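Re: export button greyed out
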Amino acid sequence: MKFAHITALVLASAILGCNQPSGSVDRGQGGLAKQGGQAGGQQTAQPAGKEALSGSILVDGSSTVFPITEAVAEEFQKVYKGVRVTVGISGTGGGFKKFGNGEIDVTGASRPIKPSEVELCQKNGIEYVELPVAYDGLAVMVNPKNTWVDSMTVAELKKLWEPEAQGKVTRWNHIRPNWPDKEIHLFGAGVDSGTYDYFTAAIVGKEHSSRGDFTSSEDDNVLVQGIATDELALGFFGFAYYEENSDKLKLVKIDDEDPTNGDGPIAPSMETVIAGTYQPLSRPIFIYVNKKALDRPEVAEFVKFYLSNAPKLVKEVGYIPLPDRAYELAQKRADARRTGSLFAGAGSQVGVKIEDLLAAEEK
Amino acid sequence: MDSNTPKKQGGSLGESQSNRGASWAEKTFLAICYAALGLPLLLLVVLIVDVVIDGWPRLNWAFLTNYPSRKPEMAGILPALVGSAYLMLLTAAIAIPLGVGAAIYLEEYTRPSRITSLIELNISNLAGVPSIIYGLLGLELFVRAMQWGRSVVAGAATLALLLLPAVIMTAREALRTVPHSLREACYALGADRWQTIWRVVLPMSLPGILTGVILSLARAIGETAPLVMIGALTYVAFLPNSLKSPFTALPIQIFNWVSRPQAGFHTNAAAGIIVLLALMLALNGAAIWLRVRLQRRMDW
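Workaround output, generated via the alternate export path:
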C-alpha cells in the first residue's frame, strides 16, 4: 500500500512537471566542495583530535527537524569519521516517547515538550537540555485560482478551524459575507504532528483541538497537491513546502490585529519570521539532548557542531535560522547543562522570540 | 521447460477449436478476459514508463554508491541498498529452514488430525494478517523482549515471520507434486523415511520450493510498514557491520524522499523506485531461472 502511495505521488509530481533544471546540479556540487574546505579549516583549529572521537549518536523525532539534523549529521561525519550518527523519523510525539524511555540521545521537536512527556522523562530519571535550532513558519495557502482571499485575520482562522466550526462553517461566505457562496475544502497537517499542535495552539487557542472534518496528511506533498488542484481549498503546512511549490499555491497574508508586531496582514518570509512580525504562525523548532548523553564527548561535540553550523545549514534546507545571538546563548545553555524547558514544560506557546527567552534565562 | 510444452499444446488446441466453432458468448467472454488482462498490464506500463522518465537521468554509479545527503543531487542509496540486501539474506536464512521444515513436517510426518488441521487453518490465517501487525509483533518480541534493539536482525526476523506462511504453503504444494509412487519405490528399496525425504522428495521438490521462497522475498523487499514499526532509520551514513547494527532500507529511503519539499528529492525517489523494481525483477527472474534449470536436471 505504501508502495502504491509512493508511485501515485511520483505520478502526480510528474504530471505537474517537477523537473529539476540541470544547472542546479553544478551549483550544488560547487557549494559542497566549498563547504568541505570550510569544515576542514574549522577542524585544524580544534585542539581535540577528530580521529580520536568515536561512538554512536542516536537521533530521532520530528520530521520537520529531520532535514536540518540530516544536514548536520552529514557534515559532522565528514569531519568526525569515527562517530556514527543515525537519524530516524518518529514524529515529535514518537520521538519524545523514545527519548523519555532512554532509547535515544537526541530528539528533534517541532514544539516544546508537553507535560505528559515531562512526566515520562521524570519517571525514567531522564534530564534533558532543550536547544532551539531554527524558526519555521506555518503558511496558510489557497489555490492560485482563488481570487477572493488575500488575507485573513487570526479571528477568522479561529472561526474556521475551531471545533465548533465543524458542520457549521462550511462555505466561504460563512467567514466573510462578501466571499462567494461556495464550499470550502480544508487541508491540514496530520494530527500527530507538532505542526498541527502548534497551529491549533496559535489559532484555536487550545493545543491539539480543532474541527475534525478536514483532509489531514502527515505528508505535506499530499496537501500541496490537494490545494494545487482544488479551487475551493484552504490549508496550512510548513513554509518550506510553500517555497518549493510557490508556482502552484497562493499565500494568504495573516493579520493578528496586534500593531505591536507589525501593522496589517503580513505574509511569511525569511525577513518577517526573523523580525517576529509574522505572528502568530512562526515558531521555534528544537532538539532535546539527554543530559547524561551530553557527558559523552562525541555527543557534546555533535551538539556544538550542530549549533555552530546551524545558521548556514538551516537556510540551505529551507528553514529560517535564529539570530546568531540565539545560537550563542543556546551553546551556553548546553555548556552549563541547563536542564528543563524554556516553556516550563507547558507545550506550544505562541508568539515567542527565542532569543528573548534565552536572554532572560542568562540574567 | 519440458513440463510446460504439453500445457502449451493443450492451449493451442483449445484456441483452434474456439476459432472454428466459437459462439458469440464465448467470443465476448474472451474479449472480457483480454481486457481484464490488458488493463492492469497497461497500468503497470504507464507506472513504469512514468517512473523511468522521472528517474532515469538520475540513475548513475554515484547514485548507487553515495550516502544520503541534504543535497538531492549528491544523495545516494548505498546504505539503503546494502541494508535491503542484508535484510533479504538474513530473512532467507531464517525463513527457509523454518518454513521448509514446517512444510516437511506437515506433509511427510503427520497424519491428518484435528491438531494438524488447526495448524493449517492458522497458517492460512496468518498469511492474511496485515504486515503492520507483524511489525508490532516484531517490535515487542525482537526489539524489546529479546533486546535485539532496532537492528538488522530484528528487521529480518520480523520479515521472516511475515513470509513464513507463504513459504510453508508453497513448500507444501511443491512437496505434494512429488508422486507417491516414488516414495513407495524408495521404501521398497529399503530406504527409511529420513533417506527418502533427503534423497528423493526434497531434491524433486526443490525447484518449487525455491520459486516460492524467492517470490516471497521479492514481496518482502518492498515491505515498508513492518520496518517502520520496528524502527528502521531514515538517515544512516554507514553500512551495517553486525547483526545488531542499525539500518535503513530502500522503501524507507524512497518514502522519505517522496515526502520532502524539494523536487530534486522526488527525482531521487523515482530513481530509487527504478532500483527497487529492478531488484524485484532480478529476484523474480532468478526464481524462473532456478526452476527451469533444476527441473531440467530432475527430469528423467
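The longest strand of chain A covers residues 128-142. The button fix ships in the next patch.
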